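Friendly challenge for the regulars: who can give me the structure tokens for this chain first? No prize, just bragging rights.
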Amino acid sequence: MQGGQEKSLQPDSAVPGSSTNSELSERAQRRNSLVFFLNTALAYLVGPVFYVGVLHAAILNTLGVSNTVANLPESVSLWVAPLPVLIAWIWPSPRLLRPMLTTALVIQGSAGLVIAGLFVTTPPSWLIAALVAHAAIIGAMNGVRQMCLWELIGRGLSPTLRAKTLAWTFGITPVFAVVGSFASQLVLSGKILNFEILQPVPEPWKYVVLFGATGPAMLLSAALMALADVPPTPETGTRAGVIEVLSGLRQYLLNPMILVCALGFLLTYGGTMIMNNLSLYAREAIGSSPEDFAGDQLALRFGFKCLAGFALGWLVLRIHAKASLLATTGICLAGVAWALVVPGRWYLLSFGFLGAGELFYVYYLNYIVGCSAPERIRENTAYTNLIAVAVGFFPVLYGAASDLYDLRASFGVAIAILAAAILIVQLGLPRQPAVARPK
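First reply, four minutes later:
Bragging rights claimed.
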């Protein structure tokens, strides 16, 4: 910095299509980038619990429930998605972003500590309802966390720094998820990739350790929010009324780029919900309990995500934003197809492909943020999270299909859904997002 003055990072054409301006200094923007990075890293570290699905389904499977019920926690975690929209309506002020995000993180950590206690104080029959309730809390607070973090980097970073932040964050932080996944597998079975390393933690203490670890991780994440800095913005002094909320939703749905992107987001998200059935497929493909490979599956899932993170960020910076959408959805499709045609333990690599493809969430949201005026970023992110309500029916759909037919039939359904998403994005979206200006 010259003359002792902090430079302001201005919007730049390296990432076309974004209208986001930041009035913050370079130092403040880099702090926001660091907050986003560290928050994501800590969430990944406890990913085996926070990525509601595989671990919850494996535990429920050991309790003897059907495939449909084993998929229920993930569905419930998605059905609570309207909460961020309600929060964006009641508390629209950007000044409340940090308190909201801090509260969500504290609630998530507290929920993990509570469920850890229930594993040693309640009978197994009660744990089914407890795991579903925990999934609802994690799902609701994840929605708030994502909405606030995306507003933070949408308002508080220049377009180029935002793209670089996404590349570095999702190129490095999945390493934390790999570490967390291998640690969870050691806790669950004492093995990594079926090689015995140490004695597994006995029940129910192994679940106490996994769920209890989310408490300190999220409390640390909440403390880090003190570093965040949101750009100043004029305050209206009132919250939006129902008419304004409906008007905002109407603008969201009438924006052709956002609408097509949201539809691609829905179908890709729905396709990835096959993950639970892929986990349950371990009994058929390998002849072992799904729980024996839950941590390995997660490690592959996040390890591949790490490898893909830099490449997908490069697509946005050097090619165009739509390329990252097509790439992530295509990788998800390849992952499901791999499980259909590859036998034995090699089928586990499908979790790696799907893990890399799961970054679709980041790049679809980035495209929608690029289509949004700065004052509408939080609202449009919240509306996008509403899509999770519809996505919540996909795990139950796959569970029902596998109960009626078999697990492989549900894989075919997922492949068809993902192929439809690729077609819609390819035909319906321009290479770069752009804000629709009033005529």
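The longest helix spans residues 124-156. The CA atoms of residues 188 and 200 lie 6 Å apart. Your move, everyone else.
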